[in-house]
Specification:
The chain has 10 helices and 8 strands. It is of the alpha/beta class and 301 residues long. Strands 1-2-4-3-5-6-7-8 form an 8-stranded mixed β-sheet, with helices on both faces. It is globular and about 50 Å long.
Length: 301
């Protein structure tokens, strides 16, 4: 049973505090309270048998040629799992999108660029099979938070990754990044040095290195209060894409932590920010999807 309206503010404040602590408890609550109405049960499929990599698919009921969002989660390329992001998949499915959330290999099992190879394979699987789940293979948008935004940006900016799996960057209608590391040299932390080494290849590991103006449309979302992935990453990438004549938008907020940039995508916390509205609007615009009148989403100002 949903909480009574008079108790909602207290519950929201509690969730904000829990999510800000980065503990599993807050995420579990967001997942528990994620939408279920008009959404089919989550489907899991293996997209890479060699490495036993799977993805979860969230579908609106009666989806037909629906826009598709492939969401890559973050965790410094070292931790995380698709199961933690049901709140993202369910919320976006409730807005009319078919959502795919893949796992990918992590350090120390692998180093750069293996997690990008996995991400490209997940997109290739999506392009080949998403029609079976009501999605349109010609309406794929990549989305990611933190390290996942890096993965999405690299696929959008460097066509070699999708080409290597028999695909094309023309598959991608847009890319959405939340709090992404796009320009984070010099590498000072030992784990990042190991993940992206040797030093001779550091420049090529940066999304900003690959900007040439031919990228699909990108929506870069950042918080000025982010102390984990500094806002200069978004600003620098946005500026360079603009300078090269590429399609890019920037949406900045003032007061969200790095974790809350993805937390506000949940139905419980979305009222704290316009981020969810921008994600929905951008995806509909870039996939030419019509507004759906019964969906509960506030219009952009």
């Amino acid at each position: 049973m949903p909480p009574m309206p008079s108790r909602v503010p207290r519950i929201v404040l509690m969730l904000i505090g829990l999510f800000a602590l980065s503990g599993c408890t807050g995420v579990q609550i967001l997942n528990t309270l994620a939408p279920t109405e008009a959404i089919l049960p989550t489907v899991t499929r293996t997209y890479n048998t060699e490495h036993a990599l799977a993805l979860d698919i969230y579908q609106p009921e009666n989806a037909k040629q629906a826009p598709v969002i492939v969401f890559f989660w973050g965790g410094r390329w070292e931790e995380g799992d698709k199961s933690l992001y049901r709140f993202v998949g369910a919320e976006l499915a409730s807005k009319g999108f078919v959502v795919v959330i893949p796992n990918y290999r992590l350090y120390p099992q692998v180093k750069f660029p293996a997690f990008l190879d996995d991400s490209a394979q997940a997109v290739a699987w999506t392009h080949a099979h998403i029609a079976e789940f009501g999605g349109d293979a010609d309406k794929i948008v990549l989305m990611g938070h933190s390290a996942g935004a890096y993965n999405a940006a690299m696929l959008a900016l460097n066509p070699a990754y999708l080409h290597a799996v028999g695909g094309s960057r023309t598959w991608i209608r847009g890319m959405i990044g939340l709090g992404g590391p796009y320009d984070f040299l010099p590498l000072k932390e030992p784990d990042l040095q190991a993940i992206f080494g040797p030093p001779s290849q550091y420049p090529q590991t940066q999304p900003i290195y690959w900007v040439d103006g031919s990228n699909p449309p990108m929506l870069l979302i950042e918080s000025r209060a982010d102390t984990i992935v500094y806002p200069k990453n978004t600003r620098n990438l946005y500026t360079k894409i603009k300078a090269h004549g590429g399609p890019v938008e920037k949406y900045m907020v003032d007061d969200l932590s790095h974790q809350m940039l993805i937390g506000v995508v949940s139905n419980v916390l979305s009222s704290r920010s316009g981020i969810l509205q921008h994600i929905v609007h951008f995806t509909r615009e870039e996939t030419q999807a019509p507004e759906i009148s019964h969906l509960k989403i506030q219009p952009l100002n």
